[in-house]
C-alpha cells in the first residue's frame, strides 16, 4: 500500500517514518501484546471483544496501555480513515516500551502503542473450495502453567516454529498439540471437528487462544441448533471426523480436508462447514462498529 499511515504513540506517521527503538522491550524480549482485527465494508467486526481481549492480555502481563479503550477505538478509526480503508486488517500492538539491555520492565517508562491498518492477505480462494491440508507439528503449544496461550503476547516463536514445520512438509498450517498430546489449535487459528451433526472444539483449558471467530462460530452454530461440545480431542479424533475446519480473524472459516496424510471423510468440504461459512459471511457484513471514511 502506498502512502500508508501508521498510528504510532498518538501520531499518524508515514510508513517509512514509523520506527521503534532497538531498545524497545517488545523487540528485545517479546514483551508486549497484540490484536488482529478485521473491518468489512466500513464495519469493525467484534471490536469490543478484541479490545477486551487486548486489555485482558495487557493486564495479565502487568502492562499499562496509556489509552482508555474508548481512546484506542478512536485511534483505530482515525487510522482506517487516514488510509481510506473500508475493508481492512487492523493490527494493534502494545509493547513494554523503550528500556535498557536488561529484563527489568521498570526501566521502561511508557508503553509503545501502534496501529497498522492494511489490506488483508487471505488464503487463496480455491482452498475454501478444496480445503486445507494440515500436518501435526512436533513443536507443542505453550503450556497454560508457563505462558498461557490465552494471552495474545508478542511471544509467537513456538507457533512460528510449527509454521516452519508445516511449510517444510508442504502444508500451509500445522496442528499444535498441548504438552499432554491433546489437540490445542493451529498456529494462528482455532480448530473444529464435525461428528454426527455436532461440533466439537478443544476447551480453553486445553491451552488455546480463545478466538473471537471461534466464539462467533459457536454462537452461530447454536443459533442454527447445531450442538456444540467443548472437549479434549486427539489427532485420531480429527482423522475420524466427518468435517474439520479452522477459524480465525484472517482465515474466517476454512475447511480442512486432509490431516497428516489422512483424508477427512471423502475429502470434500462438508455441509455444516458450508452452512457456517455462509452464516459467518452474513454476520460480518451486518454486524460491527460502523465508521464513515
Ligand atoms: N489461535 C492463535 C494462536 C491465534 O494467534 C487465533 C487462534 C484465532 O483468534 P481470532 O480471535 O482471530 O479468531 C489466533 C489469531 C496474523 C494474525 O496476522 C493472527 C491472528 C489473527 C489475525 C491475524 O498472523 N491470530
Describe the structure.
It is built from eight helices and 16 strands. It is an alpha+beta fold. It has two domains: 5-118, D-amino Acid Aminotransferase, Chain A, domain 1 (2-Layer Sandwich), CATH 3.30.470; 127-285, Alpha-Beta Barrel (D-amino Acid Aminotransferase, Chain A, domain 2). Helix 6 (212-223) links the parallel strand 11 (198-201) and strand 12. The two termini are 17 Å apart. The model has no long low-confidence stretch (mean pLDDT 97). 3-[O-phosphonopyridoxyl]--amino-benzoic acid is lined by residues 36, 159, 185, 188-190, 209, 211-214, 247-250.
> Whole-Å distance between the termini?
17 Å
> Number of folding domains?
2
| CATH top level assignment of the largest domain | Alpha Beta
Annotated CATH topology of the largest domain: D-amino Acid Aminotransferase, Chain A, domain 2
- The CATH homologous superfamily of the largest domain: D-amino Acid Aminotransferase, subunit A, domain 2
Concise overview:
This protein is α+β, with helices and mostly antiparallel strands.
Fold topology:
Blueprint: E1 5-8, E2 11-14, H1 25-29, E3 32-40, E4 43-44, H2 47-60, H3 69-82, E5 88-95, E6 112-118, H4 125-130, E7 132-136, H5 157-168, E8 173-177, E9 183-186, E10 190-195, E11 198-201, H6 212-223, E12 228-230, H7 235-239, E13 243-248, E14 252-259, E15 262-263, H8 271-286, E16 289-290
Parallel strand pairs: 7-8, 7-14, 11-12
Antiparallel strand pairs: 1-2, 1-6, 3-4, 3-5, 4-16, 5-6, 8-9, 10-11, 10-13, 13-14, 14-15
The protein binds 3-[O-phosphonopyridoxyl]--amino-benzoic acid.
